[in-house]
Amino acid sequence: MAHPCVRGCLPSQGDRKQMTPNPTRARAWRRRARRASAAALVAVTATFGTGLAFADGSGPGSVAAFGDASDAGSAAGQAVSGMSRTPSGAGYWLVTTAGQVFAFGDAGSFGSLESQPNQPIVDIAATPTGQGYWLVARDGGIFAFGDARFHGSTGGQRLNQPIVGMAATPTGNGYWLVARDGGIFNFGDATFDGSAGDVRLREPIVGMAATPTGKGYWLVARDGGIFAFGDAAFQGSTGDQSLNEPIVGMAATPSGHGYWLVARDGGVFTFGDAPFHGSLAGGGTAPVVDIAATPDGGGNWIASGGRYLGDFEVTCYSLHGSTASGAPVSERVVAVDPRVIPLGTEIYLGGQGTRVALDTGGAIKGRRLDIWEPTDSQCRDWGRRTLPVYLDTES
What is the pTM of this model? Predict the structure, then answer.
């Protein structure tokens, strides 16, 4: 068969077989992918490292300030997974998946994890005094520093889904943890006001925010769907919109009558009395992981993170049919060397967005990727590019 590309080269196309998608095979493969060992992803990170500094400040660990938010600094090159601001709004903390905490502005340094946690750290929450903070891991393990007190954890429990976020009560005497399935775990003086654990979610939960009174909270899903409990009022969502990139975090306004949602590409969506201060959409290199608002709601920060895998050579193919996983081809698909990136892994291509490793190719070896586009002309326009590649910090 003649090669359909005359430049930019698509050497992997000749190594592929076109076939009719097999739904049974695809479902079986997805079940196997879900059972894939997390150790494979750990090995990938260990092989390629965790961070990279970009000269333009757009890489992992960078912080973008909007409105009256001040740029107090960034943790360049770090695999940041969460952020929390100080009570004054003149500083903030960034935390990495390994539990390293970086303090900026008037944020105090109260400690970091001295050794690698059993599970990656996924979020950080500050105490009301700003003299301490909690870190939470995927298994719900809690690490308290400064004046933050330990009120309990799910570290010893068997969870249906991993923890993805936390929020502290206004008193600092308790906190909530939220799991990927919308399950809520409350500790100390944090009250249970409901959960999405028994709801059939279209997309998983990715974060939460508490109301100023501490008598309610919102959960946000990957598609921007909002679930409101207690005195948290529903102000709108992106659940019925087609998003370029998934939602990764949220922040509430000081009044509790609105909130911001942020997507992985830095796009910001405002609801209720939340004003729009700006966004990173299309302007960042690394995936966005969190958003925090200033005390008066007049600004916000957007933090980027992701676990850096390295710079990969990226080519393109346009064959139609099904992938090596059995799933149909689409613009979300990327072909990988499964010895480097396990099939089923969601990756972020710098400046391009999220793709899922669902395909392979005979010429795809080592730090080489092949994205899918619908037409040969689009692939010719793509040619060959070298792009930074990241793992989602929740992986």
Answer: 0.84
